[in-house]
Amino acid sequence: MAKEMDGFNFEQRHGKARVRVGRVWRSKDGRRHSMVEWNVNISLLSNCTGAYVRDDNSDIVATDTMKNTVYVKAKECSEQLSAEEFAILLGKHFTSFYPQVFTAIVKVVEKPWERVSVNGQAHVHGFKLASEKHTAEAIVQKSGILQLTSGIEGLSLLKTTKSGFEGFIRDKYTALPETRERMLATEVTASWRYSYESVSSIPQKPLYFNECYLNVKKVLADTFFGPPDGGVYSASVQSTLFHMAKAVLSRFMDISSVQLKMPNIHFLPVNISSKDIGVIVKFNDDVYLPTDEPHGSIEATLSRFWSKM
Ligand SMILES: O=c1[nH]c(=O)c2[nH]c(=O)[nH]c2[nH]1
């Protein structure tokens, strides 16, 4: 909230960034363990302008206290919970415990530790790191109003065919040939807003948001690839992105909008020829030069009409 100060507009917030916490839960007999590793970012909107303009820190929640709160709350959670639930729990704490705090923005990034299988059997306490991360952000108001967003960071997807790009603008600077046969590779960053509008209206089913996360990830990947036996043709990254976003909104009625960022990560055709021998390597949709940069940058947000995102 902007405040008028000495004839200026003033906005401030403070918080603690990158608080890392690991939490292990043990079954009653102690044998089966579950675990999470979270990176928590807290930002509080509060009435503490005195600290900025009058050297008065009496309304400041110390960022060190915020950090400690993450560990205390993690300890107090006796059952495994989702990143979303932990973000909401922290947001509720900061907005209800401190009269000065009117909004808490809590972001949690979960490292993808997955239970390992040994000889086809789920291990009781062994985990390995996968690649894409689960993100959650809760914006909690003192009144209990909630904005809840979840996401995926770093979901790398690639298909070796059924992708093309034709019919785009051609001008004197255009060198790219049209094609109906190319590699399509991307690293999806997704975020989706849930329609729950208050902390009291979120589903109470244990680990509900973890289930949603896995389901959304599956719908995104399945739509990108198409059926296993033949895939689906992609006319552009833009078209595939739109189909992926639409599939999410059609399947999950408690999601009101979805944002997808899908860089077009290029695999360049390799052709080599020499003056003496002539053609050494002729590209036949087989040998590529993988690249990181530059990459196409394609992003869009799809929302229901009544969405508040
Ligand atoms: O799917 C694509 N979308 C683009 O906008 C674009 N631009 C480009 O050079 N190649 C591609 N591919």
Question: Would you give an account of this structure?
Answer:
The chain is α+β, with helices and mostly antiparallel strands and 309 residues long. It has two domains: 144 residues, Urate Oxidase; 155 residues, Roll (Urate Oxidase), CATH 3.10.270.10. Helices cover 22% and strands 38% of the residues. It is built from five helices and 16 strands. The strands form five sheets. The chain has an eight-stranded antiparallel sheet. Helix 4 runs antiparallel to helix 5. It is globular, with a radius of gyration of 24 Å. It starts with a strand and ends in a 6-residue tail after the last strand. The mean pLDDT is 97. The structure holds uric acid (URC). Uric acid binds next to helix 5. It is an enzyme of class 1 (oxidoreductase). Pfam families: Uricase (PF01014). One of its GO terms (molecular function) is urate oxidase activity.
Oligomer: single chain
Strand content: 35-45%
Which ligands, by name, code or SMILES, are bound? uric acid
Instruction: Give the proportion of residues in helices.
Output: 10-25%
Major beta sheet summary: 8 strands, antiparallel
Q: How widely separated are the two ends?
A: 18 Å
Structural class, by secondary structure, is: alpha+beta
- Provide the spatial order of strands within the biggest beta sheet: 3-4-5-8-9-10-11-16
CATH topology of the largest domain: Urate Oxidase
- What's the CATH H-level homologous superfamily of the largest domain? Urate Oxidase
Quick check: average pLDDT? Answer: 97
Taken together, the total number of domains comes to 2
What is Rg?
24 Å
Q: Given the structure, what is the number of helices?
A: 5
Say how many strands there are: 16
CATH class of the largest domain: Alpha Beta
Overall CATH architecture of the largest domain: Roll
Q: Categorize the overall geometry.
A: globular
pLDDT under 50 segments (min length 5)? none
Order of helices and strands: EEEEHHHEEEEEEHHEEEEEE
